[in-house]
Amino acid sequence: MSAIQGARVAMNADQLRVAVRALLASGVLPDGRPDRTWGGRGADFSCAVCSAAVGSEELEIEAYFGSQVYHLHTECFMTWQEERQRG
Ligand SMILES: [Zn+2]
Predict the structure, then answer these.
(1) ∠41-46-83 over CA atoms, to 5°?
(2) For the segment 36-69, what is each residue's pLDDT rounded down to a tens digit?
(3) Which end of the chain has fewer CB atoms at under 10 Å, N or C?
(4) How far is the centre of ligand 1, averaged over its atoms, from the C-alpha of 11 (Å)?
């Protein structure tokens, strides 16, 4: 869990995996490794996986692919990376 607080994710772990697989299959989420990632407090961006806003009391991960930036809950990011590596 994050040092700030647990991410308030709208889905349970199984639902998250299903959502991530669908987003990977449709190409909405890249299946490569991010150029870089950044963690910080949320800024009410919609999470790229679960669509819920990442509030300022939560930890947000920013994943950079070139000029494209994805804002995610920590848990959503972890699920994405696990599923991406699973192939
Ligand atoms: Zn999320």
Answers:
(1) 90
(2) 999 999 999 999 999 999 999 999 999 999 999 9
(3) C
(4) 8
Which option is the CATH number for 13-86: 1.25.40, 3.10.450, 3.40.50, 3.30.1740? Answer: 3.30.1740
Helix (H, G, I), strand (E, B) or coil at 25: helix
- On the question of pLDDT at 72 being above 60, the answer is yes
Ligand 1 center to 46 CA (angstroms): 8
What per-residue confidence (pLDDT) applies to 86? 86
Distance 50 CA to ligand 1 centre (A): 4
